[in-house]
């Protein structure tokens, strides 16, 4: 019995006729094996040496090789067209390049020292920071209010926990209309509205008996920043009405029904249900609106006269293309990049909350 069992064991373990036995997996790796692994990372599987292909590490290498080769072309384009310009900008910020020739001299951090003592730079930076703080708050607050009213501000209908106001779809189109217009058209229209001689703002104030509130120079005096804030908020609030309406529409109606049965008012429903469940869209919108507020170049450059205010993009433009100081202008661009980066990272960190599943 034992002999017959031993023979059966030999038959099961013996390799089949014509079949090649798999090569033994090496347990230890030498310097030569490491070089083979590096080479195998750039080779297709059929050209990979057997000594590497049957190693226990090869499966992990094959996985990462596929991921890296799949991402190599997009990363190459990103590095050439996105990362490389940033690095070049930082390099030119350390030179006295005029932007009008290929000649430049390395000056180190002199441009940044000059920025530190430039009053016009600090004024432009302060205006940009104010836009960064005020415009997102006002725009998102108005977008949330209008979106909530359009989705849950109507009278309660039969068999519906919440309902929007009548004609909500039409209002969404009206609110979104400024997004269809280009920034240049918006700037020209509002420049005519704020015109002290032929603008409808002063004429309307005088017609309703508020002539004391009229101004001779809305866009060139201390009111210029407030006018830019108002135009920015007006032009983007419709986008956020649509964005927040989509976020609120994804909230299950059962949650509102439960709140209604508990006797929750509309303000309580908004702050305890709608706002927390729409937080991801709000945080994304906040970052996007902050970047738009920092990039107010076209609006300020077209709408505001030369004696008016400056923001960082317009200050950069004047230094590079009016005064021929491209090296100094790229230093301003580096500062603008750092401000944008700090704002985005701060919002991602401070706005992080536990995700609510529903």
UniProtKB/TrEMBL annotation:
Annotated segments matching region Disordered: 1-27
Highest taxon of the lineage: Bacteria
Keywords on record: Cell membrane, Membrane, Transmembrane, Transmembrane helix, Transport
Ranges of biased composition (kind: Low complexity): 16-27
Transmembrane segments: 66-91, 124-152, 173-193, 223-243, 286-305, 325-346
Cellular location(s): Cell membrane
Protein topology in the membrane: Multi-pass membrane protein
Segments of skewed composition (Basic and acidic residues): 1-13
SUPFAM superfamilies assigned: MetI-like
Residue intervals of the ABC transmembrane type-1 domain: 125-347
Gene3D superfamilies with a match to the protein in the record: MetI-like
CDD domains: TM_PBP2
PANTHER family assigned: ABC TRANSPORTER PERMEASE PROTEIN, DIACETYLCHITOBIOSE UPTAKE SYSTEM PERMEASE PROTEIN NGCF
Family according to the record: Belongs to the binding-protein-dependent transport system permease family.
UniProt name for this protein: Sugar ABC transporter permease
Originating organism: Streptomyces sodiiphilus
